[in-house]
Design brief:
The protein is an alpha+beta fold. The chain has one domain. 19% of the residues lie in helices and 27% in strands. It has a 6-stranded antiparallel beta sheet with strand order 4-3-2-1-5-6.
Length: 121
């Protein structure tokens, strides 16, 4: 099975969106399938990020998934149907756009010492 998130999509139609305060990360590409990300401490996603420091503009680049999920209060604010299925969030979300606390929904408290795979599985 191929990685269904390997194609870069437009910033306005991300696979998933994470946010905390005025900061937002739109996932526009992944490099590995979720099952392989869980095994890789250095797994990364291509994201479009914006914050008060970008003055409303998007900055594109890769981010380590573990670094993103170490941000306290990070929330999943949007997930495509495919993302919900691939990351097994069906039981967590009543609908794909539900605003959930990523860590608490998966029994994860933000912190650099926490393994990435605890977030999704």
């Amino acid at each position: 099975m191929a990685n269904q998130f390997a194609k870069t999509v437009d910033v306005s139609a991300p696979y998933a969106t994470f946010a905390v305060g005025d900061w937002q990360w739109n996932v526009i590409k992944t490099y590995q399938m979720p099952v392989n990300e869980r095994k890789n401490d250095f797994a990364r996603w291509m994201v479009a990020a914006r914050s008060p420091n970008t003055f409303g503009s998007w900055e594109l680049g890769d981010t380590y998934i573990a670094s993103l999920f170490s941000i306290e209060g990070l929330r999943l604010t949007y997930a495509s149907d495919a993302w919900v299925d691939a990351y097994d969030l069906v039981d967590t979300l009543e609908r794909p756009t539900a605003d959930i606390d990523v860590g608490k929904a998966h029994g994860f408290e933000a912190g650099l010492e926490d393994p990435l795979w605890e977030i999704f599985g």
